[in-house]
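Input record, target 12 of the design panel.
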């Protein structure tokens, strides 16, 4: 068989807290488009036969190729990407490409992909992906390749970092271990990777660091689900990294995920600091020991978690944390307890989620047996204000409402400022130095002030000024980055939890009338179809032909305002337009780009070359709705 051209695609994520969209779009340097690159695809690329020509496209940072020069298309995905992953698999398959599905959700639920892909690769890829590649070349690929044993991570190659556009991400990623010794009831990690942690060698890590350093990476995230699953092994790694940093002029700022018992080992904390780990994400879940014991998170119950968090701060390491509400012990009062804990602990990136039962986890099995699973809610999508768990200690609607209120309090100006003060009081000298130049830092601060602080008026200006450590300038970058994180979360909460003040019905009517007036003569001529949902939640424009530039000039402003001031979504369906209107529609789309996640665009095949639409900006619809 001739040399195989493989396209690997990471589907677009629905927006979540982790997107930090406001920060990426409004504050950070323009080149940055999202947070982390798809490490799994870079690893798959390294596992391909050496003569294969592999391209990686991440739909979150670049346009999707609609007619790629490829012999095979692979699409990966987590649960939250499943809908888009399925749509991409079906699209490429319809166009005649053989398609293969993989990723964490395919590993957990391969049965969900059988109808959408020619082959499903389920489980760790190190052995089964090369087997699939061999079979594909021999034209005998099977529908399912499933890893059922334990992969030795010594057999994992250095990922093809060079195939990722790393300058478009805030943080590069690498992995040292898989598996976690603990047994939290809700966790799918131990279902996928097991409870016996497995490791790469430090020499492998060294090669990966060499590769990242050669590509100019400064921020790197060890994506291990628990880097300290085996403390002695973790210490060896950290000593190696500290030596590596010293030998190469401390090129990296690191972050990782670890369990809270990190705080109980002074030597480990000192090694984290010496190796250049500036932050750690910890699943704290709940400050209530009874809840933690019930969910089998015993490792978090050894002391008051506030003490643990402060001990980590004392070593200059920032803490990002996950929290869960909706456990069986939780009541409406739990939300106040969580709020109090998060504020006192000073954790700014506090990711509070509703307890969700992921397929094949012990929690899922238990709740199914108890008849407490909602089947109308997609468990894979944790970005919505909903969960598939029926709570025990309060009505479902109460839980959702209290959750909404909890976030509203956390992202208030006072809430952001109090957490910064509470954190900095316990952090003498942050480890992180940041990757930006002095000029970039000045630009970031200016954009934060003009786009984030000043628009909040005097209350926010005061809260901002009072939270900054004026007499300890080395702590300033952390306070600034916490304000950026806090305001990005606030922006998300306001838009997604319906907390943003929106325009009244009179103004909405005025804008919709302006759109209808601008469209009237095209509608009469049958060139444009306009549909506005009765509740004005969705505007659909169908361009069928003979649409000229004037249409876009006249509709740009009212549509922009409507999207800016209301939660309305826009669906644009382009079947036809005048050739001369192309520059205007391109400008029109540029103007609407800031609302991209609420704008879906379908462009008929014959216009796609002339009117490419960036799927990392808009929701690009692949088939007519
Ligand atoms: S500590 Fe984290 S990775 Fe380990 S079992 Fe618990 S939730 Fe899963």
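The sequence produced for target 12 reads:
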């Amino acid at each position: 068989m001739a040399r195989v051209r493989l396209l690997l695609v990471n589907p677009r994520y629905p927006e979540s807290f982790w997107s930090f969209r406001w920060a990426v779009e409004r504050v950070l340097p323009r080149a940055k488009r999202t947070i982390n690159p798809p490490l799994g695809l870079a690893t798959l690329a390294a596992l391909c036969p050496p003569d294969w020509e592999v391209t990686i496209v991440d739909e979150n940072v670049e346009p999707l190729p609609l007619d790629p020069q490829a012999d095979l298309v692979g699409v990966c995905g987590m649960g939250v990407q499943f809908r888009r992953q399925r749509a991409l698999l079906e699209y490429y398959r319809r166009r005649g490409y053989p398609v293969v599905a993989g990723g964490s959700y395919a590993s957990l639920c391969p049965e969900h992909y059988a109808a959408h892909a020619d082959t499903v690769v389920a489980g760790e890829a190190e052995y089964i992906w090369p087997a699939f590649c061999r079979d594909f070349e021999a034209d005998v690929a099977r529908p399912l390749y499933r890893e059922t044993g334990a992969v030795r991570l010594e057999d994992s190659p250095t990922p093809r970092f060079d195939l990722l556009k790393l300058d478009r991400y805030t943080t590069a990623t690498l992995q040292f271990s898989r598996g976690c010794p603990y047994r939290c009831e809700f966790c799918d990690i131990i279902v996928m990777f097991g409870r016996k942690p497995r490791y790469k060698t430090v020499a492998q890590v060294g090669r990966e660091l060499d590769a990242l350093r050669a590509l100019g990476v400064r921020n790197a995230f060890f994506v291990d689900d628990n880097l300290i699953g085996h403390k002695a092994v973790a210490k060896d790694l950290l000593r190696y990294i500290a030596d590596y940093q010293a030998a190469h002029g401390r090129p990296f700022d690191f972050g990782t995920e670890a369990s809270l018992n990190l705080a109980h080992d002074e030597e480990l904390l000192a090694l984290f600091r010496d190796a250049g780990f500036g932050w750690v994400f910890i699943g704290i879940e709940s400050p209530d020991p009874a809840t933690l014991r019930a969910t089998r998170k015993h490792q978090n119950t050894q002391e008051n978690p506030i003490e643990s968090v402060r001990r980590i701060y004392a070593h200059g390491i920032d803490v990002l944390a996950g929290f869960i509400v909706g456990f069986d012990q939780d009541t409406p009062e739990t939300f106040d307890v969580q709020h109090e804990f998060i504020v006192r602990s000073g954790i700014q990136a506090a990711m509070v989620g509703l307890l969700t039962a992921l397929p094949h986890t012990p929690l899922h099995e238990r709740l199914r047996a108890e008849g407490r699973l909602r089947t109308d809610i997609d468990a894979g999508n944790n970005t919505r204000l909903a969960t598939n768990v029926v709570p025990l200690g309060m009505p479902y609607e109460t839980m959702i409402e209290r959750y909404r209120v909890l976030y509203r309090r956390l992202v208030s100006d006072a809430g952001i400022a109090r957490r910064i003060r509470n954190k900095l009081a316990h952090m003498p000298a942050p480890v992180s130095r940041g990757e930006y130049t002095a000029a970039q830092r000045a630009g970031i601060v200016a954009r934060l002030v003009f786009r984030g602080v000043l628009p909040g008026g005097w209350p926010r200006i005061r809260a901002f000024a009072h939270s900054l450590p004026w007499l300890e300038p080395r702590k300033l970058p952390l306070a600034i980055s916490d304000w950026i994180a806090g305001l990005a979360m606030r922006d998300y909460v306001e838009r997604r939890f319906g907390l943003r003040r929106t325009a009244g019905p009179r103004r909405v009517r005025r804008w919709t009338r302006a759109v209808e007036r601008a469209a009237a003569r095209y509608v009469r001529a049958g060139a444009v179809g306009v549909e506005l949902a009765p509740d004005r939640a969705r505007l659909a424009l169908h361009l069928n032909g003979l649409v000229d530039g004037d249409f876009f000039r006249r509709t740009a402003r009212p549509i922009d305002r409507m999207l800016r001031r209301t939660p309305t979504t826009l669906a644009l369906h382009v079947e036809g337009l005048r050739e001369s209107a192309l520059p205007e529609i391109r400008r029109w789309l540029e103007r609407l780009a800031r609302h991209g996640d609420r704008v879906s665009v379908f462009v008929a095949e014959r216009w796609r070359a002339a009117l490419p639409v960036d799927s990392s900006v808009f929701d690009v619809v692949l088939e007519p709705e």
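The CA atoms of residues 469 and 475 lie 6 Å apart.
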